[in-house]
Amino acid sequence: MSEAFDFLQQASLITAHDEGNAFDAVVPPIVQTSLFTFSDYDEMVATYRGEKVRPVYSRGLNPTVRIFEEMLAKLEGAEDALGFGSGMATISSTVLSFVSPGDRIVAVRHVYPDAFRFFETMLKRMRVDVTYVDGRDEDAVAKALPGAKLIYLESPTSWVMDAHDVGALAALARQHGVLSVIDNSWASPVFQKPLSLGVDLVLHSASKYLGGHSDVVAGVVAGPKALIDKIRNETLPYLGGKLSPFDAWLLIRGMRTLPIRMKAHEASALEIAHRLQALDVVDKVCHPALANTLPPGLYGTSGLFSFIFKPGINIRAFCDHLQLFKLGVSWGGHESLIVPGDVVANQKAPPSFAEAFGVDPLSVRLHIGLEGTEALWSDLQEAIAVAKEG
Ligand SMILES: *Cc1c(COP(=O)(O)O)cnc(C)c1O
Asked: Which end of the chain, N or C, is more open, meaning fewer C-beta atoms within 10 Å of its C-beta?
């Protein structure tokens, strides 16, 4: 762990006590309302003229959502942040704020599948072209950048776990006048702060670690006020993918334990990844801390990684025999989850998809939850014993 990473300082950034408001409740209230009323005609006029900033309608400003946005901005070291009803609403609204027909963007390969599908369908229909590059190959990235409008990063990527030198990629983008955006859902702001590495905008699927309890679908983007204002004023109101007050409240609740949860996911996942790597049935473990040293700016690892079995293992028997690991997508909550690579690789989807996501059919993706390392390891060992027999 780098000395630049101060674990306790992360926790001290998390405050959601809305002092002086709402009876000084230690937990901020859910302001569950669609609209806010004005005291008189003049206040309405002043608000509509922009002379007074106050909530009008919850698709715009909502106080509970605003508390979550401020918490996240502080944790990412950002001037401002904007919450959305899902990670995908965040990704689509952010990208669409900065591209026009005829533009081209660059994306690292193996990005989150629905981000890839958004690029391949909606963006291409808008005549925005996409060049995919291996984010580990900085020469290839430098070659792809001239003339591009935006570079879309994700590190580590959420199946094969390619970890990039985010600071180096951000510097290249800046040299070429290309706006950089990163999906930081995997590391969370606890382990990676992309804005401090020179990235322009950082976004999250808050459905994962920020929420942390598998009970909310949400997203958030953070960065300089001028860029966030552009998304807030030019895209969010019309695409309308606004975060709801109740979901914001769940995120505020979840984020209070984010640093502690991340440390627990990290410790358990690292231990299990090392033990898996020592097994004779395992070909390769795809975990950024096992591949090599962590790239600069990544100060820890989360609970999500994958591994590839050697041929001859019955993956169906393995999955069906697991007790604690449940078959299911998503990740970031208390529970441990497994997704078999062959199901993903052979799903009903455009053929280019499996290749783009880089999923090996002999691989499985694990999310290591908070049930405890030894219990999870026993579960895996017993299922592997059954899967070996056929
Ligand atoms: C889940 C996920 C998303 C999409 O977020 P939703 O909240 O499901 O819309 C984006 N990026 C990554 C890395 C994800 O895991």
From this structure: C
| Residue 230, burial from CB neighbour count under 10 angstroms (0-12, 13-18, 19+) | middle
48-80 burial code (b ≥16 CB/10 A, e <16): eeeeeeebbebeebbbbbbbbbbbbbebbebeb
State the closest ligand 1 atom to the C-alpha of 154, by its place in the atom list counted from 1.
13
How far, in Å, is the centroid of ligand 1 from the Cα of 90? 9
Task: Work out the pLDDT band at 354, boundaries 50, 70, 90.
Answer: low
Whether the predicted pLDDT of 13 surpasses 80: no
Q: Which domains does the chain have, with CATH numbers?
A: 7-255 (3.40.640.10), 258-389 (3.90.1150.10)
Ligand 1: distance of its center to the CA of 313 in Å?
A: 30
Edge-to-edge strand order for the sheet containing 337-340? 282-286, 304-309, 363-367, 337-340, 326-327
pTM: 0.95
Residues with C-beta less than 6 Å from any ligand 1 atom: 86-88, 112, 114, 158, 183, 185, 205, 207-208, 217, 219
The pLDDT value given to residue 4: 46
Distance 184 CA to ligand 1 centre (A): 10
Closest C-alpha among 237, 188, 249, 214 to residue 329: 214
User: What is the token pair recorded at 85?
Assistant: 């009803």
Token digits for 282?
Answer: 């395992």
Contact, 70 vs 229, CB < 8 A? no
